[in-house]
Write a structure and sequence with these properties.
The complex is a heterotrimer of chains A (168), B (476) and C (123). With 168 residues, chain A is mainly alpha-helical. In chain A, 77% of the residues lie in helices and 0% in strands. Chain A is built from seven helices and no strands. In chain A, helix 2 runs antiparallel to helix 3. The longest helix of chain A has 26 residues. With 476 residues, chain B is mainly alpha-helical. In chain B, strand 1 and strand 2 form a beta hairpin. In chain B, helix 1 runs antiparallel to helix 4, helix 12 packs parallel to helix 16 and helix 15 runs antiparallel to helix 17. In chain B, 57% of the residues are buried. Chain C has a single domain, classed as NADH:ubiquinone/plastoquinone oxidoreductase, chain 3 (Methane Monooxygenase Hydroxylase, Chain G, domain 1). The longest helix of chain C has 28 residues. The model of chain C has no long low-confidence stretch (mean pLDDT 83). At the A-C interface, helix 1, helix 3, helix 6 and helix 7 of A face helix 3, helix 4 and helix 5 of C.
């Protein structure tokens, strides 16, 4: 059952990821990306990482995708205006990505034994995560809020229009 | 978290409270002077607090951070650098009508990120520190939005830095998959238990190096450097060139010492290639540039190449040479960019070589200071750059990296050419009359004094480096 | 691969299936049931009786984007509350204080956003 589900999800994930790259219309790409995110969330559940799955759906499929759509609309990407990419560039990209694939596949082959021993049971549960995060990893948790603050200032500073800010 | 942990983390707490204070201050009323004062005072106060630590202070905040001599030294370096950047930012931003206040928040947060990075001994804190640094830098680079090139630079840095972060994360996860550990010590321990590194971990470490290489701007990951240097506001450029790169170097030193990476030939070979490529590409591409910021960008690429020679030597000698080189490079780079910042006017930075034609006759002191900075970058005796380079070569010879040392010497000669070329332009007799809107002279006093202090340090380190050397010797 | 107890996820899966199924059925049903008239005017984009012109993608105010980004930031903040809420009892007051620090840091940011009028629409 689990294995069949895994194959199904993987097939769907790879297929929709390919469609993201190949579809001509950027909005379709985004929609396929949503499917990809959902399938990956499914993978997380299969790996017993429920928190990651939920976060993935909420943040990525929910919030980040909205940003994607906004960006696409801001960019005004029409089919005609898409710049022609040279073939050499495509060739180089394919070679680089292919090399990465070879490295990853090569290194992942025959490593099942190593990988399996490191996973603790129940590590992906919300409860376990909370226990770890609020005891052992408290400091990073607080630093995260600083990180969000930095992003906030940056966004407001760059996104706010010019004239209205000089007063106040 | 107990009291001594908190004591060790106070420098970070001071920085974050300064940022928060700035937040409130901006929310209530924008005032450049107030924000500037808060920033400078908190940085100075933080540094003074830092000096209260003993150099042999060692506090492990398990599992994430270790506040030891090396970390404290680097935090001090970061704080002072940020202070200098803040000091020279005042005049630079005062001329401009755009909002200037958020700049200081972002600067402090970026410094905070770098501080976290240099004391981290765990992937989580390393990555978080790096992200705090990078996220602040994204907005800092694009800060002067109305400028032509700043948004280009901002977007370029955003995309490439995010990409390199992805590489870093992927590498970390592969390493975690193999070892089940994320702290440097645990990974080092795992490596002692195995004969040779498993392939998957090798791939992980390789990706880690790719990610780090992007942030350092070593060849072949250097493409962003010139554009970002050119597009960013000059003080921010100085910050990227120093704190962002130096923090990463300090982290690499800590990481490689923890996992004892020097014993693996594949890594030393990899870094050798990166180092040689950076030296040659950086110097050769710099020869034909006419934009000073781009020249300095390419020069920084080659300087990271020199630094890697010291880094590769490993051991305490290598760490010492790296640290000393960092100090000298920080002073020199800050000075050079500081001068560019003071000469810039409201609309554009003084970045073309032609802006410096006859500078000696217009502003003799500035020209002399600038020449000193350039000579130090070239590694001419009596400057800090010479001692630093000397140290690097000693470290390289001590560990028999002959090829690297040879390349370093050849490149120093190539580098000398374009540094001298800039100096020659400054001596040019043809006067150029330029009238810029002058601010109140007091504004310039801060920048001038800062640069003067930097120049004094430059010569002081070049003539009698013993004090700094023994300090570095103590912390390592 | 580990074998998690997939049966636990059955309710969620059911919900997904129903949600998806509802959308799909409605779409098919309307196609089947509704009358079809395929004249040119019927297929035209309807825009309050005015003839439509230009592209659907027009430049719009950056404020939408700013709001979206701020939403993402606070969304991420809320994510951190789930593990805290689940462990609320076992973390006692310490956990509460930790969360308060976290939230108050972000509140500073929120205060800043409000004061700078980043969420104000008309200006």
């Amino acid at each position: 059952m689990t294995l069949n589900l895994f194959y199904f999800l993987s097939f769907l994930a790879v297929l929709s990821a390919l469609m993201v790259v190949f579809s001509k219309n950027p909005v379709y790409s985004v929609l396929y990306l949503i499917i990809t995110f959902f399938t990956i969330a499914g993978h997380y559940i299969l790996l017993d990482a429920q928190f990651l799955a939920v976060v993935h759906v909420i943040v990525y499929a929910g919030a980040i995708m909205v940003l994607f759509l906004y960006v696409i609309m801001l960019l005004n990407l029409n089919r005609e205006s898409e710049p022609h990419k040279s073939n050499i560039l495509k060739f180089a990209a394919v070679i680089c990505a292919g090399l990465l694939l070879v490295v990853l596949v090569g290194s992942l082959k025959g490593t099942e034994a190593i990988v399996q021993q490191s996973g603790k049971a129940g590590i992906g549960y919300v409860k376990t995560l909370g226990e770890v995060m609020f005891k052992e990893f408290l400091l990073p948790f607080e630093i995260t809020s600083i990180l969000l603050l930095a992003a906030m200032v940056g966004a407001v500073m760059l996104g706010k229009s010019e004239k209205t800010n000089d007063t106040i | 978290m107990n009291r001594s942990d908190l004591y060790s983390l106070t420098p970070l707490l001071i920085l974050s409270s300064a940022a928060i204070l700035n937040f409130f201050s901006i929310s209530i009323k924008r005032n450049h002077k107030v924000i500037f004062a808060i920033t400078v005072l908190s940085l100075i106060g933080d540094f003074i607090f830092l000096t209260s630590y003993s150099l042999y202070h060692q506090q492990h905040i398990d599992p994430l951070l270790v506040v030891d001599g090396f970390g404290i030294f680097n935090i001090g370096l970061i704080l002072l650098t940020t202070l200098v950047v803040a000091l020279m930012s005042y005049a630079y931003f005062e001329q401009r009508e755009e909002r200037k206040e958020e700049y200081y928040i972002l600067l402090i947060l970026a410094a905070l990120g770098a501080c976290i990075m240099v004391i981290s001994k765990h992937f989580v804190s390393f990555f978080l520190g790096l992200e705090v640094l990078s996220v602040s830098l994204y907005s800092l680079i694009a800060y002067l939005r109305t400028r032509e090139r700043s948004d280009e630079a901002g977007i370029k840095y955003l995309i490439l830095a995010a990409f390199s972060s992805a590489f870093l994360l992927f590498g970390m996860s592969l390493i975690y998959a193999t070892t089940g550990k994320m702290d440097f010590g645990g990974i080092g321990y795992y490596l002692t238990t195995t004969q040779d590194i498993p392939l998957i971990m090798m791939a992980g470490l390789g990706m880690l190096i790719v990610g780090a290489g992007f942030k350092l701007g070593v060849v072949p990951f250097h493409m962003w450097t010139p554009d970002v240097y050119e597009g960013a506001p000059t003080p921010v450029t100085a910050f990227i060139a120093t704190v962002s790169k130096g923090g990463m170097i300090a982290l690499l030193v800590r990481f490689f010492n923890a996992i004892n990476g020097y014993q693996y030939e594949s890594f030393t070979n990899l870094f050798t290639v990166l180092s040689i490529a950076s030296m040659f590409v950086g110097n050769i591409l710099a020869l034909r540039q006419t934009n000073l910021k781009r020249i300095l960008a390419y020069s920084s690429i080659s300087h990271i190449g020199y630094l890697l020679v010291a880094f590769l030597s490993g051991g305490s000698m290598g760490a010492q040479a790296t640290t000393f080189y960092l100090v000298a490079y920080f002073i020199t780079t800050l000075g050079a960019f500081g001068i560019i910042a003071t000469l810039s006017d409201q609309h554009r930075d003084a970045e073309l070589i032609d802006d410096y034609r006859g500078l000696l006759w217009r502003r003799p002191l500035t020209a002399v200071a600038f020449s000193a900075m350039l000579l130090s970058l070239a590694g001419i005796p009596l400057t800090a750059g010479f001692i630093a380079k000397f140290y690097v070569i000693t470290a390289g010879i001590g560990t028999q990296h002959w090829l690297l040392v040879f390349c370093l010497v050849v490149n120093s000669v190539i580098g000398l050419y374009y540094y001298i070329k800039i100096i020659a332009v400054m001596f040019d007799q043809k006067l150029q009359i330029k009238s810029a809107k002058e601010l109140h002279p007091l504004v310039y006093v801060i920048s001038s004094v800062t640069i003067a202090v930097l120049a004094v340090f430059l010569f002081w380190l070049g003539v009698s480096p013993e004090g700094m050397l023994s300090l570095i010797d103590d912390v390592i | 691969m580990e074998n998690p107890n997939l049966a636990e996820y059955l309710p969620i899966a059911l919900m997904f299936i129903f949600a998806l199924g509802f959308v799909v059925t409605t779409m098919i049903a309307t196609h089947v049931l509704g009358p079809k008239r395929k004249s040119k005017i019927k297929l035209d984009t309807f825009e309050c009786g005015i003839e439509s012109k230009g592209n659907a993608r027009i430049p719009f105010n950056i404020k939408y984007f700013l709001v979206a980004i701020l939403f993402v930031l606070f969304d991420v903040e809320v994510i951190f509350m789930y593990p805290w809420a689940v462990n609320f009892k076992s973390l006692h007051w310490e956990g509460f204080i930790q969360m308060t620090v976290f939230i108050s840091l972000l509140l500073v940011g929120f205060f800043y956003i409000l004061k700078k009028g980043a969420l104000k629409w008309e200006e």
